[in-house]
């Protein structure tokens, strides 16, 4: 990474760059309606992080910190929508933005952070393990609405 790299919270002004990056995550996704954009950036406990190199959004993820009534009332975090620009991968940007999200979860009192992926590529799984995630700790189950 270069000296111009910075990680910060994203806001509504970053939506175009974020949605362009999301096309590399889920190619062909329809753009969200304006009310979904507003909801995503005003929802309490949900934060979007972006790693910038200069003015270019290079990597992103979001973090939801969820209140909890177990574990002494400590919240937990969920990281989703992790993506790094295809032309900037394997340079530490994705790991840096994930590490930032984890640090923010700890700062918000979370006792654990979860991350799931639908990618079936062992290299992607190894990437998340290098970020500190334990693939044997929990098992995720998913149901999708048709």
From TrEMBL:
One of its GO terms (molecular function) is acyltransferase activity. It comes from the Bacteria. Residues 5-146 form the N-acetyltransferase domain. Keywords: Acyltransferase, Transferase. Its EC number is 2.3.1.-. InterPro entries: Acyl_CoA_acyltransferase, Bact_Acetyltransf, GNAT_dom. The keyword Transferase applies. PANTHER family: AMINOALKYLPHOSPHONATE N-ACETYLTRANSFERASE-RELATED-RELATED. This is GNAT family N-acetyltransferase. It comes from Pelomonas dachongensis. The lineage of its organism: Bacteria, Pseudomonadati, Pseudomonadota, Betaproteobacteria, Burkholderiales.
């Amino acid at each position: 990474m270069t000296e111009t790299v910075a990680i910060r919270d994203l806001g509504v002004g970053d939506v175009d760059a974020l949605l362009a990056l999301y096309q590399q995550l889920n190619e062909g996704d329809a753009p969200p309606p304006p009310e979904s954009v507003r909801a995503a950036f005003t929802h309490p406990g949900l934060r979007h992080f972006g790693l910038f190199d200069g003015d270019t959004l290079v990597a992103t993820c979001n973090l939801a910190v969820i209140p909890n009534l177990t574990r002494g009332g400590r919240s937990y975090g969920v990281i989703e929508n992790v993506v790094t620009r295809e032309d900037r991968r394997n340079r530490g940007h994705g790991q840096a933005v994930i590490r930032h999200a984890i640090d923010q979860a700890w700062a918000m009192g979370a006792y654990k952070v979860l991350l799931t992926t639908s990618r079936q590529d062992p290299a992607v799984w190894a990437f998340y393990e290098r970020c500190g995630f334990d693939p044997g700790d929990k098992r995720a189950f998913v149901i999708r609405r048709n």
